From TrEMBL:
<feature type="domain" description="EAL">
    <location>
        <begin position="24"/>
        <end position="275"/>
    </location>
</feature>
<protein>
    <submittedName>
        <fullName>EAL domain-containing protein</fullName>
    </submittedName>
</protein>
Amino acid sequence: NAKEEGDGYFRYYKPNLLPLIAEKMQLENGLYKALQENQFYLQYQPKMSSVTGELCGIEALIRWNHPELGFIPPDKFIPLAEESGFIMEIDRWVFREACRQNKAWQDAGLKRASVSVNISARHFYQGNLKEMITEELQATGLEPQYVSLEITEGVFMRNIEKVIETIQHLRGLGIQISIDDFGTGYSSLSQLQRLPISDVKLDRSFIRGITIEDKRSSIVRAIIELAHSMNMRVVAEGVETPDEADFCRNLNCDELQGYLFSRPLPASDFEKLLA
Ligand code: C2E
Ligand code: MG
Ligand code: MG
Ligand code: MG
């Protein structure tokens, strides 16, 4: 009877919840092995100058090819890695691999462009981002002006003084700093004024299907004008259609990124864009 099986609450939830918890544990436990056994790899997506139409930057994006579960998107495992702290190891690996690859492209005589690496906000509070960056730049031989770090607005939530000090130090080395997914978090442009940021990446929710009549267009216009007045560039993310690209160009957005130009590509295919 019901009493022996436990109450209805458990009978109802157990079958649905357990596989989720099991999968989460499987992924979390698998992260360490993934790094040891080279299950991670990077794809690269170009950023295009909205003025010249040329490639002007490269974003590195992590991929996980799990031996049993197959492809796992970063939105699924990066949050787990952030929870457990293992993100520090992953960020270092991504940074090293992206720098190594960009240096190899440069040494092969391909176009020189800066490579952007997504760095968890956690790396700005804990651990030693400055040392990690210096060590890996030295190990790979890539010059700092060819490196950019993308951080989300979450970085403003805590220990703002340490964050500012770290960003200033990195800018001093010649590294660029971008605010990723701008407009979705809690920061404001006035907060950005305190930080030596190179550019803001407008979140793709502002770009999708946008037209001049759209309410969002006055917000986008204001963000771009303010960013420019603070000497920051603006990158539009998630540009998928020619209309979206025209809209961004008309508002003087500096760079465009999205499926319209290219999906993220494996290194061997990305090389052709640089050649
Ligand atoms: P993000 O840094 O904002 O990256 C942009 C995401 O949008 C990427 O998804 C990219 O593939 C996707 N995207 C690019 N163009 C378009 C487009 O035109 N339309 C649409 N619908 N999507 C587009 P992805 O690679 O799945 O990465 C998701 C997020 O995971 C990233 O967002 C970033 O926050 C995180 N992430 C990815 N790689 C890394 C990494 O190496 N380290 C860390 N810490 N986070 C990473
Ligand atoms: Mg990014
Ligand atoms: Mg983004
Ligand atoms: Mg994102």
